[in-house]
Amino acid sequence: MSNSDPILIVGGGLGGLTAALALAHRGHATRVLEGAPEFGAIGYGIQFGPNVFHVFDRLGLREQVLAVADSPVALLMFDALDGKELIRIPTGASFNARFKHPYIVVHRIDVHNVLLYACRRHDAIELVPEAMVMGFADRGDSVAVATADGRTFTGAAVIAADGVRSLFRAKLLGDGEPHPVGYAAHRTIVPMAELKADVPRDCVVLWGGPGFHIVHYPLRHGSLFNVVAVFRTGTHGEKGDAASHLAELQRSYRDAQPAMRDLLAMMEITRRWQIGYRDPVRHWHRGRVVLIGDAAHAALQSLAQGACMAIEDGFCLAELIHTSAGDFAAAFRRFEAARLLRTARVQLESRAMWPFYHAEGIARDVRNATVADWDERHLFACLAWLYDGAPLPAAAGG
Ligand SMILES: Cc1cc2nc3c(=O)[nH]c(=O)nc-3n(C[C@H](O)[C@H](O)[C@H](O)COP(=O)(O)OP(=O)(O)OC[C@H]3O[C@@H](n4cnc5c(N)ncnc54)[C@H](O)[C@@H]3O)c2cc1C
Q1: Is this prediction's pTM over 0.90?
Q2: Do residues 230 and 263 make contact, with C-beta atoms less than 8 angstroms apart?
């Protein structure tokens, strides 16, 4: 085995596919091992800040992504109890002028397909579905991974893009499951034509209330409407019966504005996602194995940036592998140095925003009084560290 063997990428989510594509652009062969029967994404919406376009531009995917995306008019936050607008971040001309790229919302399947089709056009990328990795052995000059069905794949190195419950993280860091935050989410997409709730349809809206919030936005050129309802819960299961989930939702949102309760009435509530977070750690690699995306630095979704970080990671790592000329240890150290502070800040700020969204009592009064002074200039300045993008390794050079 040698460095000319393909690099193994475990996990065909947005982080893994971005890494594969960026490596292929630099002439490196990869084999992407995905545990699911097919490469695909769960069917809900996703928000992308303008920072992600720095990567899409470098991969030549800007137009394809824009073709399947919606550009909201603004990002709004409402107080869920009295319905007052608290924060308005316009995402039109002034936003585009300031951040040079748009804010978009897109069906996750559509953006995943843009990356997937681009991967399929590259001979250097082999996509292997139904390859659930169960273990690995770092042999010093190569890595072998074993799948659940008894196959072994060997590669020059492993990029573990296997998500928030990463097997590779468990083996490298052994720090257990993500910390539960005591909240769960239900997600739903409905045809826009069936939306009865009196809410803005062309914006990303967050309604924040004590122990709950709801986020909603349009998808597929305004034909669909995506809703995520997040609430405090003592339950831990991801599946349950609709009647008990409904009773819990009605209790959680009893003081919410009528429009929010109309939104809840449309929701599919059998399946829920438990919400967890990880604390930042300094090191994401050992030997020839490196973690990226949620496997390395899963965050609460308060900033809607987890997938953006996974995409930035995938691109940055690929460029550093390319410029490290076969020295994977050096590439992985540079990758950690390049990405640690930015991703840790996303993790920490996302945590800090959680009580801000769910403020109650005097904390809610303080929040509402504080944000009353926040104008566009102030909000753009607060978001600049994130939306201006990360320094990516230089475009030119071999
Ligand atoms: C409710 C909610 C809303 C969110 N909204 C946003 C948003 O608006 N914007 C945003 O940027 N982020 C958002 N996020 C975060 C985002 O979903 C994640 O950060 C992102 O998907 C991480 O990408 P990834 O490639 O690291 O991992 P994943 O997308 O989780 O992909 C991991 C892949 O690895 C595969 N896999 C796992 N284990 C194995 C194995 N052992 N062998 C082989 N394959 C394996 C999985 O099947 C999967 O395909 C949200 C998250 C939640 C929960």
Answers
A1: yes
A2: no
